[in-house]
Amino acid sequence: MDPASTIGHQEFDRQRDPQHHRTLGSDAGDDRDSRNASPEQGLNRRTFVARGLSFVGLAAVQGLAPAWAAGKPRIPDDPTRVPGSPPSAYGQRSTFEDASRLVSPSHSLTPLQALHGIITPSALHFERHHNGVPLIDPARHRLVIHGLVERPTLFTLDELMRFPSVSRTAFIECSGNSGGEWREPKGKTAQETHGLTSTSEWTGVSLATLLREAGAKPEAAWMLAEGSDAAAMTRSIPLASVLDEALVCYAQNGEALRPEQGYPLRLLLPGWEGNTCIKWLRRLKLGTTPFMTREETSRYTDLMPDGTARRFTFVMEAKSVITSPSGGQQITPGFVEIRGLAWSGRGRVTRVEVSTDGGRTWKLAGLQEPILPKCHTRFRFPWRWDGQETILQSRCIDEMGYRQPAREALITVRGVNSYYHYNAIQSWKLLPSGEVRNVQV
Amino acid sequence: MDPASTIGHQEFDRQRDPQHHRTLGSDAGDDRDSRNASPEQGLNRRTFVARGLSFVGLAAVQGLAPAWAAGKPRIPDDPTRVPGSPPSAYGQRSTFEDASRLVSPSHSLTPLQALHGIITPSALHFERHHNGVPLIDPARHRLVIHGLVERPTLFTLDELMRFPSVSRTAFIECSGNSGGEWREPKGKTAQETHGLTSTSEWTGVSLATLLREAGAKPEAAWMLAEGSDAAAMTRSIPLASVLDEALVCYAQNGEALRPEQGYPLRLLLPGWEGNTCIKWLRRLKLGTTPFMTREETSRYTDLMPDGTARRFTFVMEAKSVITSPSGGQQITPGFVEIRGLAWSGRGRVTRVEVSTDGGRTWKLAGLQEPILPKCHTRFRFPWRWDGQETILQSRCIDEMGYRQPAREALITVRGVNSYYHYNAIQSWKLLPSGEVRNVQV
After folding, report:
1. Residues B303, B356: one domain?
2. For residue A278, which of A4, A428, B95, B316 sits 20 to 30 Å off, Cα-Cα?
3. What ipTM was estimated for this complex?
4. Which residues in chain A have Cβ-Cβ distances shorter than 8 Å to B22?
5. A250 and A187 share a domain?
6. Which residue of chain B is at minimal alpha-carbon distance from A247?
7. Which domain holds residue B374?
8. Within an 8 Å CB–CB cutoff, is residue A100 touching chain B?
């Protein structure tokens, strides 16, 4: 793997601002152990930097404000002179890091603009609960499979973990992601506009394995999936559409599912709207028709311009968002790597195109390998901002040939009565001040 | 992607124990909302299970001990009747989960036997420190590149994050992983024998980009990399061998590096021994020869049978370990999915072979896609344990054609004076009691 292959170094060389960091003199210094000297020795900046001495001294020279002033722990002036902390049983992030989910009573949003790569840290995976996060003892939890099966069966967690297991890195997106954008540019940041999508490596048992174990009857066409939360969240799932890929998961990013992601069991239907990936899963019932639970109509339908409603619109269509630069960020002229995420519930992302002129022209972005089906894909595009006002956009094309629509095209078909399944191109306006704002064009 | 493809359902059907979980009667029950009934209504077990009612009642029937007895929080009898917790800004794992790193003063070990898939949760990534984890303010941290360069240069973290970025999912393995196994079967668990390897998705800047920025001179052949810890940990790196893949990383599994993994900057040399992936990176100096720092000789050389020492043995050769069943676990007869991890510092894993008879015969294990170069690869093998004593083993073959050696073959070449780079086949003995023990054959 050539780590530079997705970027294009020539392009980078052409676009970059050669002066955006400090170049020192060419005095290469000597090899003495850094700890044999200190800022107090009064070396001039050039010599002391070239010798690799304390950068803290340099910060002081430059008048940088000490970061611990705002309640941070006391930072040693020279970390090489103070023994560090011992290993720990279960690590925490640095106290300097504060990327957080944006929390409301029913959900929380992933801070996409603060993240890198495609894996969402489990602690920052978005949440959407219908009556909070239940407290469940895994030793007492059971999954029942019943209805049109030969052998209605109860499974303990230990039993499920003995079955053949499967891992799959996949996004989960709430169908309400970007729902605030139908009528106006509501979200101020990428977190607010697109933060209801996250990616994890999930591990569990194939649903097909469990249904064979219970002896699903040939006439079983729909499956009711029910959670153990205080909403007893339920959805009806058409079996034939999911059987190849559905997993009953007990693990996320290597460890047990997080409580807010369904601990100890979650249904994963890769590419389908998040609410169908029932959390705290306790029951699967097979039948011949949809079960028409509350959630089939009270939510999760799409009101069309003619007053009819689309139902069972499960698949999350291709979508993308530029996460940097994005709303609320402040940028400076010069080289800017435009970074973002693209995904499709239909399969792999095949192309992402970026416009730096409000949609007049589009260029191909680089895609970070591996490109996995129904998974966030990181795209990057090297660019030089001249400081003029402009609009940045991205659009995703998936392996079905589907192209993420412009806002106008989406609204022409769907109207503005819907809340769910908004996947139009996102526009970020750069102002000459360097401010980035959510706009709709 | 067919989630069952790596397992072979026919094999599973043949091997599985059909009675290892409870099959209920075929009474499918009705569809009434679960919350309209309760265990107190005195339904018999069959009816009440078939109706999807409280599993807590069932647990009581079966006499399971309440799990909260040991200091756990009070668990509601029926989670559907108690509103759950609200969303949170930064999530925590369930209080029922306790997988932990095994901690010693200088290092901690990843609990491989408790993990799933290939991503290691950042909180459980192994640690190896030479003088603890330094406390570093990222705003004050600098990386200097000097020595044989045209433009000795200081970089702030913000500056580094503006450069073209690259993500890479890769393992890091300490060269001392399994070092206790040279003379005797020392580790009791997979964590103790193999827990000094972990996998993360890393994001940062290509080293090649930074060296071009500083203007590396043609005669520069070696690079000194230095950390900001109290050991000022330093290693000499031959540039030509790493330039295609080396990254200067600031992110791990989506968020900022964890402190114990080098926050805010770490050198990543995919496939190379972990100690070369300098944490808390603050200095890179280019030269023509190795810098012969303390760590080049006091550690990280391999003493051979003839008394000479191998030096600069950077690459971690192909290796694998069965993580389940593994030492310290207790298993029962019937279907057992043998699960493990395989990896190679030379590239992709192409095959993993499993023996269930102490090495007499070997069969191909299934490999979970995606199989990434220099990355943990999850393997699985369906098996039926008849309850008799036997020995389980795995061996990894990589894309160079290298095959992980038997213990005897490794010792024939290397002797038993070494501590580092032990990659022999691991043997786990199953006793008729179901106990699993580390043995050497």
Report:
1. no
2. B95
3. 0.88
4. 153-154
5. yes
6. B3
7. 319-439
8. yes
